[in-house]
Structure formats: structure tokens, C-alpha cells
Amino acid sequence: MSIQNEYLNGLMERVMKRDPGESEYHQAVREVLSSLAPVVNARPELIREGVMDCLVEPERTIKFRVPWEDDEGNIHVNRGYRIQFNSAIGPYKGGLRFHPSVNESIIKFLGFEQTFKNSLTGLPIGGGKGGSDFDPHGKSDAEVMRFCQSFMNELFKYIGPDTDVPAGDIGVGAREIGYLFGQYKRLRNEFTGVLTGKGLTYGGSLARKEATGYGLCYFTDNMLKNAGKGFEGATVVISGSGNVATYACEKATQLGGKVVAMSDSNGYIYDKDGINLELVKQIKEVERARIKVYVDRKPGAEYHEGCVNIWNVPCGIALPCATQNELPLEGAKALIRNSCFAVAEGANMPSTPEAMDAFQESGVLFAPAKASNAGGVAVSALEMSQNSMRFSWTFQEVDDRLKTIMADLYRNASAAAAQFGLAGNLVAGANIAGFLKVADSMLAYGLV
Ligand code: NDP
Ligand code: 2IT
Fold first, then answer.
1. Counting ligands in written order, which one lies closest to the CA of residue 248?
2. Quick one: which of 47, 184, 370, 396 has the most CB atoms within 10 Å?
3. Residue 213: nearest ligand to its CA?
4. Residues 280-305: pLDDT tens digits?
5. Which residues pair with 274 in a beta bridge?
6. Which among 56, 106, 90 has a CA at the least distance from the CA of 325?
């Protein structure tokens, strides 16, 4: 992945020198700058007016201590983050991730990507991301509650329904959002749409839970149809078994695909008869157990240790829905060897740069995360609208809007790629289309 512009190359070098060791952030910036070279070549004012330099530096980074007490009375201290990346087109918007791997580089890459993704939805939301190195796995509800309350005791100072609206991401689902929202409400004494992904009894939107996975399949369906293909009759492999993976499985199946494998961070299950999603939901959403339990309850299914080997399972469509860099070059080669014809990213940055290059060089239809997983944040923005109106739409209304948003997004990313001589390259198209709206707004404000 090379950057065909001298100024942007220098900028990339400065980003790496300023924050050495932030490998995920560097990876995300390199990919975007590679796509943007033709745009700045055509519009040099974007460099002259400082837009490119501002784009790679977050507006604000908040980093804080999160002390909490476990059920035995021991004290733990985690680290919390909120990176308010870019507010050019709306209030900062993006999820919170609770996972032991969380560090500044990871939150920064996620906030950077979120800026372009949110722009692509066509809705007025800026980019932000946050989280903590806290691991909710194996914690009691009471421990998770105490952690979330402590986290919000600091975060509430920096967020608000017109300022910054967090949501879920890895390790942050309905339970965590409930504790976080309850604490914000208590501290501020106000009931506003300050978080999305809320429960349906207290301001949540119908179809938000399903939105990322469903949106991924709607985007993929558009991409497939444009190539004369479809989900119908295709074998599908989905990594992960969390929120995104679960609802991707549901929609892929409804659209006629057969999902044969899913995973968690320990290993993957293979079910030649098609995954029984109700069983996966029972194991992951209700019992919070490991995916390997599936094979104890489903005769004929297999469990294999090591999540990365899931890409060896033959399939026509692969949907990586777990985490960053989970699909390396070897995985891409295995998919290509087994005649996989489409890869659509549900997770953020799941394919390594080498894997992405391999897909594009071999003609596999490739949908990049910024475009294909934008359905979640799009419905979050619809949740914000409903909260502002103090009104709620039906599941059908939200789902119809989601379908339209994903179809428009596919069209816009395709058109942007074609406009800059890169027809069919959705990576470039998504980066360019997402960038232009943000950049033009930044230009309009002058240097701020
Ligand atoms: P969840 O916490 O619900 O699920 C995460 C899943 O990924 C789990 O199955 C988890 O397994 C697995 N996983 C996590 N870390 C790793 C790892 N290092 N290696 C292998 N597997 C791993 O999160 P979501 O489903 O919400 O998020 C999944 C991805 O989708 C993330 O990249 C997120 O940023 C992205 N995303 C999420 C959106 C949302 O609305 N939730 C919107 C857009 C993107 P285990 O239980 O073993 O950890
Ligand atoms: O990566 C993402 O887009 C999300 N985790 C969802 C963010 C949101 O604000 O709904």
C-alpha cells in the first residue's frame, strides 16, 4: 500500500515519528492516505489550508484512571479513554470498547476510522471512540456495574447529547450501556440521548441491536447483486460470535446463505448443516459462555482450537466480525484458494493490509469496514433523532431506513472510486467519499 503523493508521504512519516509504537493507528492512517493521494493531487488547497495535517491529529484525547472494587473487596485500577477525533460534521460519535488489549493506538485508529464511516452514513455525526483495558469476561454483574459507574464518574464531564454520544463496541453491550446511562442520568439529573444502544424501555431504538450485522449483509447484498451474484445458495463463514457476528448470521441466513462457521477468541465451530443461531444466542447472549459449548449440544458439529484457522473453512462469502487484524495474508490465501468470491468486513480493520491487497489483486469482491459496518452507527444516529423527537419508530421503519442508507452508501462509495479512476475499488471509494464531506466542512470553518 503506497502513498502516491510526496506531501502525504511526509505527513505519514511525521505521524509515525510523533507517536512511535502506535502500529494500529499508523496502519489505519496509511490506508486512508494511500486512497487520498488522487484527491489532494486534484485539490492542492486541502494541503495548503491544513486540512490533511488536522485530519490525522485528534481534536482532543481524554485519558483517565478508573478505580473499582471487586466482589472480594480488592481494589483494581484500569485506564479509561475517550478520543474526540473530529467534530466537523456533527457531535463526536462512536463506541466504547472494554477489552484488555485496549490502548491509545487502538482507540485512535478506531476514532480515525469512525470519522470517515460516520460521514459515509450521510448523517450528521462526527468521529470519536473510547474504552478501557478492563475485561468484562468472568466478572459478576455487580463488578461490571461498579466499573461502569466509576468509568462514567469521569467520562460524564466530557460527553453530552450535542457534544459526544458514545455507544457499544467489543465488550460493551446492553448491560454495560444500562449501567453507564444510569450513572450519567444520576450525575447530570437529566434524561437525554447521551448514549446509544440503550435498552428499549429507556430510549433505545428498535433494530439497533441488529443494525451492524444486518447492515453488513445489506451492503454485501448490494455489492453481490452488482456483480450478478447473491447470498442465495452461498456458503458463508463468519468470525466472532458477538453482536455483529450474531446478527450478520441471522440476516445472511434470511437472505438465503448457509453459515457454517463462527468463532470466539479461543477457536471456531464448524457445522456442515448450517449454524443453529438460536443455540449461539443462548450460549453467548444468555449464558455468556464459550462458543465451544455449541458442539456439546449440536450433534455433528466440530470445534477447533485457534480462531485464525476459521479462514481454512471453504466458503463463497467471508464476513470477518471479530477484531482488528484477525484476517492475515495466510487466511486470505486460503480463502482465495477455496474460491471465496466476496469478503465484507463487519469488524473494524479485520484484514491486514497484505490480506486486503491479496483480495483486490485476485478479483475477490471486497467491502471495507468503514462502508460495510456503518449500519450500526447509522442506526445509532437514528436513535439520537428519535430521542430528540421524544418519539420512536417501528422496527420496520428503522430497518427500511437502514436498507436505504446501506444502498446509498454502496452507490456513493462506488461512484467516488469511479470518479477518481479507481472503478470497483471500494476501499478507495469509501475513503474518498467519507473524506470529502469532512474536508469540505473543515475548509468552510477556516483554521480552527
Ligand atoms: P462483541 O464484544 O459483542 O463480540 C466480539 C467477538 O469477537 C467475540 O466473539 C469475541 O470473542 C471476538 N474477539 C474479540 N477479540 C478477539 C480477538 N483478539 N481475537 C479473536 N476474536 C476476538 O463485539 P462486537 O460484535 O460489537 O464487535 C465486533 C467487531 O465489530 C469489532 O471490531 C467492533 O469494533 C466492530 N463493530 C461493532 C459495532 C457495533 O455496533 N457493536 C459497529 C461497527 C463495528 P471472545 O468472547 O472470546 O473475546
Ligand atoms: O465501530 C462502530 O461503528 C461502533 N462500534 C458503533 C458506534 C456507535 O456509535 O453506534
1. 1
2. 370
3. 1
4. 999 999 999 999 999 999 999 999 99
5. none
6. 106
